[in-house]
RNA sequence: GUAAAACACUG
């Protein structure tokens, strides 16, 4: 199985996906039993190669051949569903995994959060995030960013802000894009004062607001009819040679 | 012999 794994991996990786599939079939025909590592590699490679439907097919093969999917198998399948837009399946899978008795590790949590945010289910992503923290895992910077951006997109500003605060207490170095995003979201729901606070914070942190940031702020100000401040902001944009829209 | 991943206004 080790040899077959390597063969399948390399064929698919180098674009010879069809040969990869043939090797798998051949292996089965010859009575050689695939193991779970082979299946995980096979699914992962197919996913990267863009054969998303294949991921699901392979997953089905696992049980058919008397293997038991492990936590990684579920994570890969989840990525597949999220990539193909199968939103319901993606979000259900995380719970299925747990029901199978697997305790997700930090990576499994992160993948779940990422998939959920991409499926526009940031709310669920947030729940998974809370669970992750409760279990004592430390999310990576990207996980915070993905979640904050996802929540902002769905205008869940309370949650976004909460995650934002938590990121800071973990000394995460959030970049300007995240701040701009948050300002944008706060502006959209009319929380202009908070948008300003966030703006001031960027300055304190030594981050340099760019044209995206200022445009976000400008949009927020116009929306809340703070014309004077909008003009002020517009002025400072011109001073810093940013282009307004 | 098997892990993933993101980002910004307006249009």
Structure description:
There is one protein chain. The chain has 14 helices and no strands. The chain is an all-alpha fold and 245 residues long. The protein is elongated, with a radius of gyration of 23 Å. The N and C termini lie far apart (59 Å). It binds one RNA strand of 11 nucleotides through residues 1-3, 5-6, 9, 36-45, 72-73, 75-76, 79, 107-108, 110-111, 113-115, 117-118, 140-143, 145-150, 152, 175-184, 187, 210-220, 244-245.
Shape descriptor reads elongated
- Give a short account of the largest sheet: none
Q: pLDDT average, as an integer?
A: 94
What fraction, in percent, of the residue positions are helical?
over 70%
Kindly estimate the percentage of residues that lie in beta strands according to DSSP.
under 5%
Number of helices: 14
End-to-end CA span: 59 Å
Draw up the topology in text.
Blueprint: H1 2-13, H2 17-29, H3 36-48, H4 52-64, H5 71-83, H6 87-99, H7 106-118, H8 122-134, H9 141-153, H10 157-169, H11 176-188, H12 192-204, H13 211-223, H14 227-239
Helix pairs in contact: 1-2, 1-3, 3-4, 3-5, 4-5, 5-6, 5-7, 7-8, 7-9, 9-10, 9-11, 11-12, 11-13, 12-13, 13-14
The chain binds one RNA strand of 11 nucleotides through residues 1-3, 5-6, 9, 36-45, 72-73, 75-76, 79, 107-108, 110-111, 113-115, 117-118, 140-143, 145-150, 152, 175-184, 187, 210-220, 244-245.
